[in-house]
Write a structure and sequence with these properties.
Strand order of the largest sheet: 1-3-2
Number of domains: 1
Structural class: mainly alpha
Distance between the termini: 34 Å
Strand content: 5-15%
Radius of gyration: 20 Å
Order of helices and strands: HHHEHEEHEEHHH
Helix content: 55-70%
Length: 274
Amino acid sequence: MRDDKTLSRIAALLRQAEGTDNEHEAQTFMAAAQRMATAAAIDLAVARAHDPAAAQRTTPTARQITIGEAGKRGLRTYVQLFVAIARANEVTVDVAHNSTFVLAYGFDTDIDTTEALYTSLLIQMVAASDAYLKSGAYKGERAARVVRRGKGWTSRRVVEHSALSPITARLNFQAAFAERVGVRLGEARDEARAQATGAETEDGPTSTAVALRHKEVEVATFYAEKSTARGSWRAARAEAGYSDAARRAGDRAGRRARFGEQGRFGAPRGAIEK
């Protein structure tokens, strides 16, 4: 079941965030969009808890979302951004071994929200990292990378420092951007949930809290039944190179990120061209 009216309202908030030059206004609109998305998800969970027929009509689903073509550099940071957004919207994600696509598990409206936010924020992330590289701010900075020295039982892992390359700068920038966006969305989600559930009573959690817990269990059960993933995905590898300077720049960009201009919610999404 899709609530197109609610999704349209969220999209309007995102366009307002995109249309203002005031950073604080943009953040306010962004947080409002996430809170509205969370409130809509809560309303659906409560409705399903009180209506067996609605519970049968609206069940978790799985959807494949394209991230990019095989061999493209930086797909892991794209996935990291998607996962951060999904986590804030109660969507569980499996990642292809080459990061070319993800499988999203959850309710339709939650996946719609995740896709829409990802489309907007991915464009911003790429544009911000391009501007960072073009500024030349990364030049003269150093990167740390974990390498293995020696062979057999004498081998050991050591930290190697070198000049910060453009690709390492980009990957660190985008990784920090994704982390910061995830924090911001999570804060907005938690605020909305706290307002909806209120204080715990002496007799136990509120009915809204119970409904949300049932929803979490339902998605987790669906995921356990449908997922064929092996192992767990990690956002970064020690061998990839680490730069404090690039990450600070990416974090600042993530703080300024706006949510908007992503088109209609629920529409098919393609990979960004770069």
